[in-house]
């Protein structure tokens, strides 16, 4: 009897539809790319569900406040210190939507995650004078602190911008 592992290493002839005689799809660059992108999306959705679950647990403990503040002051960031950086948030609860503006030149539209108004995700853009680069944005409020993750690298080769803010206006 032949060794099955040895048989699997042999090149298999392709049929007309690009499938081997063993019915294994041939990995093409398009399939690999799409598979990778789908996994990134699934991983991000999973991460947001974890964040939403964590925020829900904090809300149950009574330490979280409902919804976002209207104005937050930056307390730290991996992009550098900014004493005059604020995030302004305008809420549209009937649409479960937030309009978010950074005083350092960006804006975004976010939606609530899983109906939780303390976790939001969406997309935005830097002002044209600052390059006009689009980005993905995730916000989570825990008590009076806001955590932000901004990813402006669609290929995910650079780490995202992360920042913390504290509420200064309800």
Topology, pairings included?
Blueprint lengths: L3 H6 L19 H32 L10 E7 L8 E7 L4 E6 L3 E8 L2 E11 L7 E9 L2 E7 L9 E9 L1
Helix segment tally: 2
Tell me the Rg in angstroms: 22 Å
Structural class: alpha+beta
Strand fraction band?
35-45%
- Beginning-to-end CA distance, first to last residue: 75 Å
Q: Shape, please?
A: globular
Write down the secondary-structure element order: HHEEEEEEEE
The profile of the biggest β sheet is:
8 strands, antiparallel, barrel
**Mean residue pLDDT:** 75
Largest sheet strand order: 1-2-3-4-5-6-7-8
Q: Which percent bin holds the helix content? A: 10-25%
Strand tally: 8
Q: Low-confidence parts, pLDDT < 50 over ≥5 residues? A: 3-9, 57-65
Structure description:
- The protein has 170 residues and is α+β, with helices and mostly antiparallel strands.
- 22% of the residues lie in helices and 38% in strands.
- The protein is built from 2 helices and 8 strands.
- An 8-stranded antiparallel beta barrel has the order 1-2-3-4-5-6-7-8.
- It is globular.
What's the gist of this structure?
The protein is an alpha+beta fold and 170 residues long.
